[in-house]
Design a protein that fits this description.
The structure holds two protein chains of two kinds. Chain A has two domains: 194 residues, 3-Layer(aba) Sandwich (Rossmann fold), CATH 3.40.50; 175 residues, Response regulator (Rossmann fold, 3-Layer(aba) Sandwich), CATH 3.40.50. In chain A, 40% of the residues lie in helices and 19% in strands. Chain A has 13 helices and 18 strands. In chain A, the strands form four sheets. A seven-stranded mixed beta sheet of chain A has the order 7-6-8-9-10-14-15, sandwiched between helices. Chain A has a five-stranded parallel beta sheet with strand order 2-1-3-4-5, sandwiched between helices. In chain A, strands 11-12-13-16 form a four-stranded antiparallel beta sheet, covered by helices on one side. In chain A, strand 3, helix 4 and strand 4 form a beta-alpha-beta unit. Chain B is an alpha+beta fold. Chain B has three domains: 69 residues, no CATH class; 96 residues, no CATH class; 299 residues, ABC transporter involved in vitamin B12 uptake, BtuC. Chain B has 21 helices and seven strands. Chain B has a five-stranded antiparallel beta sheet. In chain B, strands 6-7 form a two-stranded antiparallel sheet. In chain B, a hairpin with a 2-residue loop joins strand 2 and strand 3. Chain B starts with a helix and ends with a helix. Classes of the chains: A alpha/beta, B alpha+beta. Chains A and B meet through helix 2, strand 7, helix 7, helix 8 and strand 15 of A and helix 5, helix 10, helix 11, helix 14 and helix 15 of B.
């Protein structure tokens, strides 16, 4: 009897000890949420970003973790399904109690999770170039705003080096990002003295694969005596057939250059780029940039993914910067508590991968250099033009009258993402 | 700044002197080449012009390498070198002396960068050096490069080339280049008017650009061209070009419609068998197309690894392999899943839908979520330029032919073979066919396999124009059902006519309505059409449908 009792007691003690250990372990990890589609249409782009976060977490843990604790990545799959993004975001914040979430690619997925992050006071790092016109207290935008990508690209096309374009074709996929970007671009071009007659806008459905008519129309539009350039906000999968058609119909970059905002090294990987040499892309990072930090990053990426052929791209750099900034802010704040981290984020600097410095501004957007590159026959993009220094991201475009009035500033006395007057918070 | 006419004229002089005094020019190449090290593209442009003016033959391979992006500065000794790809690095040779310097890693050399503007300049300059080439295609390339770069010093060379040219096509291109150069560079009214008359003969958007360029007005509506005679000639030229272009655009539109129709036909023809003839609502049809495209990818990878020289034939090998692979998978699906669900359309729909998701995710796991590169063989790249305004791309032409070929082969199989007879017997009256000794279960499996195999062959063709990604099939499933339903369920001719008429209507609507609206219009039109004629264009009469 006694021995049985003792046995039971020791078992209970053992169980308690076990529970204690696991509780202690749970307290010692910091959870980081990863909200990128691993299946469905967007998996093609987003899987890479999930791997980037995992690589950063791995690296951080090897260096001893954060605040003396190990960091644990919680990966969920919202499956390219916009409402599911919101559900998974809620799951990450409420159930998994993650300190921060790295995620989303399309603007529509970001819009879908926005109310969840604002309601639960979560923290989202959004790593993709986007249309601007937004500044949320709970989101840090580490991709480019239009003034860090679209506007400089068009200015380059109009410059002597870029060919001096006077006529523009704005091609896009039919959803919020291209339509908003083109609205800003049209206003910008009008301000530069280009009339609406010299601007052609055309939208196509997601995954459009028959580009014959549109490419022929572009040719026709370009044959009116003025130098013409194409600005493409065509998204994702539709790009491959578009570029194939361009190549086959013999449109050379010297005659009608196409500058793309959604085509990076990853998209070019599925394509024979021989006929596309000279077409342009505008980003804040290219894999071909010659900088020691970039070489290190590429080496680390190849080692992590175990494939020497994998490329790096701009949203990966944005994820890298965002992750580094967040760890710095956490270390500075001494806690992962969202409000404290947010305060510590402002003015945080991280060396970017192109040899400069990224700074987080009080409108939750980064300062980034703008690079214009030409596609090469090996699928790389070589810089042909860049800004002298970093450009501050502008949440609200100066070229849309109703937006120009708005200020996004999350420090006292403004404390808002879209107001015309300083807005004081009542304590 | 690139030089003005004045400087160009001076450079002509230098060119002439350079020809007279070759030794002096030779010594200069090294110095001129150093100009390419400059960071500024303008400085590089001036260096290129100095190199060309130097007239040194050694410059040709260097400029070609520059154009291809193969000109580097070696980190080790700061020499300008030409690099060729080798495993993981470059095999470099000294650009000036041709001395082999061994292999270096990709990051041990820095590329001398080139941009579009320089590329055009270099192409034009190289054109000058290759106008006398023996290969007519090279002469056409040279003439076109000169046409685009319009350098005044090329006029004598062009005139000489036209005089001795015998090939009509090349001669036309040379005349076009000469006229364009004269229009851009000459200051003599008569020469320019004559040039515009020559340009008016060409039906070509690029020529239209030149003629229209003369008529461009400035901000206040005043013409930028001062010479009224030149303006009148430009108007006349523009009119004749536009008449030609209008005809070309109509033909191009018809071609595009037929081309879209052939893609629809390829995607739908397999479904016309599985859905049309067998009555199985097969939502995994698109995935069979996708598997066919991935088979092409695998076959091409094997070719790249084992027989790189025979890459152009990879598609010919991929077609039968894709047919067999997807056909066998199709038979497996029929035996494993669908045969238990005959007569229960809703369950079939759900089961095949689930199957399509499984197949997609399986491909994503095996091949990765990113696009896979399927190369175009050389005979499918590029285009047939009937005139400048009418460009028919080879890949589209081949796909039209392939679609028609597949259709004809399928018709022959169904009409002429004993298997086709059995298949028709089973679909028309199953109990009767069965009592005549036909193994209906076997015929079902074969028919489903045939439909899937054709979808796989369609995948080989579609891999040439679309992304090879796990989502490839989804883009075609709706269109395929649309074609089959519109054409008339159970009728292959209906599918043919349906596919081509949808393609043509879509392409004629698109310029007016835009791609998004054109699709919506067609969908609405089909819904209305089905209301009026529920059995589609060609309704089958007989027992099959009553059951």
């Amino acid at each position: 009897m006694k021995s049985v009792l003792r046995g039971a007691m020791s078992a209970a003690a053992f169980a308690a000890a076990l529970a204690g250990v696991s509780a202690a372990q749970a307290a010692e990890t910091i959870k980081v949420g990863v909200l990128h589609s691993l299946s469905g249409t967007m998996a093609i782009s987003e899987t890479t970003l999930k791997d980037t976060v995992l690589m950063m977490v791995d690296d951080l843990n090897k260096k001893g973790g954060l605040l003396g604790k190990q960091v644990e990545a919680v990966v969920v799959d919202p499956a390219s399904d916009w409402p599911l993004f919101a559900e998974k975001a809620r799951e990450l914040i409420e159930k998994e109690e993650v300190a921060v979430v790295f995620g989303c690619w399309t603007s529509v997925s970001r819009k879908s999770v926005l109310p969840v992050f604002e309601e639960l006071n979560g923290l989202l790092f959004y790593p993709v170039q986007y249309e601007g016109e937004e500044s949320s207290r709970n989101v840090f935008y580490t991709g480019a705003a239009p003034n860090q990508q679209a506007i400089p690209a068009v200015e380059y096309l109009m410059s002597e080096d870029g060919g001096g374009a006077e006529r523009f074709v704005l091609l896009g996929t039919d959803y919020v990002y291209p339509r908003t970007t083109n609205k800003i671009l049209r206003a910008f071009l009008n301000a530069k003295g280009i009339s609406d007659d010299d601007i052609m806008e055309n939208y196509t459905p997601f995954g459009h694969s028959d580009w014959q008519t549109i490419v022929a129309e572009v040719k026709e539009f370009a044959s009116q005596g003025k130098k013409t350039a194409v600005v493409s906000t065509i998204n994702g999968d539709a790009n491959v057939p578009f570029y194939k058609e361009l190549g086959n119909q013999g449109i050379k970059a010297e005659d009608i250059p196409v500058v793309a905002f959604s085509v990076g090294e990853e998209e070019l990987a599925g394509l024979d780029t021989g006929p596309l040499v000279g077409h342009l892309a505008a980003w804040n990072y290219f894999m071909s940039v010659e900088a020691d930090v970039n070489d290190e990053f590429i080496t680390a990426w190849h080692a992590f993914i175990g494939d020497e052929k994998r490329v790096t791209n701009d949203p990966m750099e944005a994820t890298y910067i965002g992750f580094k900034m967040w760890t710095q802010a956490v270390e500075q704040a001494g806690t992962t508590e969202v409000d404290a981290v947010r305060q510590a984020m402002y003015g945080q600097t991280v060396p970017n991968l192109t040899g400069g410095t990224a700074v987080m501004n009080t409108n939750h957007h980064l300062s980034k250099p703008v690079l214009i590159g030409e596609i090469q026959d090996d699928g790389m993009i070589e810089t042909v033009w860049s800004t002298d220094k970093e450009v501050v991201g502008d949440a609200w475009s100066d070229f849309i009258p109703e937006s120009a009035k708005l200020t996004a500033d999350w420090t006292f006395p403004w404390v808002c993402g879209n107001c015309e007057e300083p807005k004081y918070v009542k304590q | 700044m690139f030089p003005t006419r004045m400087v160009r004229a001076l450079r002509c002089l230098v060119l002439a002197l350079g020809l007279l005094l070759p030794t002096a020019a030779l010594a200069d190449l090294e110095g001129d080449l150093d100009g390419l090290r400059e960071k500024s593209y303008n400085a590089k442009g001036e260096a290129v012009e100095r190199i060309v003016a130097g007239g040194d033959e050694r410059a040709v391979p260097i400029l070609e390498a520059f154009l291809e992006g193969n000109l580097f500065i070696a980190d080790q000794d700061d020499r300008i070198v030409i690099g060729e790809d080798s495993d993981g690095g470059y095999r470099i040779i000294d650009a000036l002396t041709g001395e082999a310097l061994g292999e270096v890693g990709k990051r041990d050399v820095s590329k001398i960068k080139i941009n579009n503007k320089l590329r055009q300049l270099v192409k034009g300059s190289l054109g000058a050096l290759t106008l006398g080439s023996k290969d007519p295609a090279a002469r056409i390339r040279a003439a076109d490069a000169v046409f685009r770069s319009t350098q005044v010093e090329m006029i004598p060379a062009l005139e000489a080339a036209i005089a001795k040219e015998t090939d009509a096509t090349v001669k036309a291109r040379l005349r076009r280049a000469l006229a364009a150069t004269q229009l851009a560079e000459s200051e003599d009214t008569e020469t320019r008017v004559a040039a515009l008359q020559v340009l008016g003969e060409f039906t070509d958007p690029e020529v239209r650009t030149l003629a229209a360029g003369v008529l461009v007005t400035d901000g206040d509506g005043n013409p930028t061209e001062a010479d009224a005679a030149v303006r009148a000639a430009a108007e006349a030229a523009l009119k004749s070009i536009e008449e030609g272009l209008a005809v070309a655009s109509l033909i191009a539109n018809i071609f595009q419609g037929i081309s879209l129709g052939s893609v629809l036909l390829l995607a739908a023809i397999g479904l016309a068998i599985t859905f049309g003839v067998m009555g199985v609502i097969n939502m995994a049809h698109g995935e069979m197309v996708m598997l066919g495209a991935y088979t092409t990818f695998v076959v091409q990878e094997l070719f790249r690894a084992s027989f790189p020289g025979a890459f152009d034939y990879s598609l010919l090998v991929a077609v039968p392999i894709a047919f067999v692979v997807t056909g066998v998978i199709g038979i497996g699906i029929e035996r494993g899943i669908i045969r238990w669900l005959y007569g229960r359309p809703l369950e079939t729909l759900l089961a095949t839908w689930g199957l399509s998701l499984i197949l997609q995710q399986a491909v994503r796991t095996i091949f990765g979520p990113t696009n896979r590169e399927v190369g175009n063989p050389s005979w499918m790249s590029g285009a047939w330029e009937v005139t400048g305004g009418l460009v028919l791309t080879y890949n589209r032409i081949w796909i039209i032919l392939f679609a028609l070929l597949v259709f004809a082969a399928l018709m022959a199989l169904i009409r002429r073979s004993s298997y086709g007879l059995q298949m028709r017997a089973v679909t028309q009256n199953r109990p009767m066919a069965s009592s005549m000794g036909i193994r209906t279960g076997w015929v079902d499996a074969m028919t489903f396999g045939l439909g899937s195999g054709i979808a796989g062959m369609a995948g080989v063709a579609l891999s040439q124009i679309d992304n090879v990604s796990p989502n490839l099939g989804q883009g075609y499933i709706i269109d395929s059902f649309m074609v089959v339903v519109f054409g008339g369920v159970g009728n292959l001719w209906g599918t043919l006519v349906g596919a081509f008429s949808l393609g043509l209507v879509n392409k004629f609507l698109e310029p007016y309505a835009g791609a998004v609206l054109a699709k919506i219009f067609i969908l609405v039109a089909i819904i209305l059409f089905i209301q009026k004629r529920p059995r589609g264009l060609f309704a089958l009469r007989g027992r099959a449908l009553e059951s």
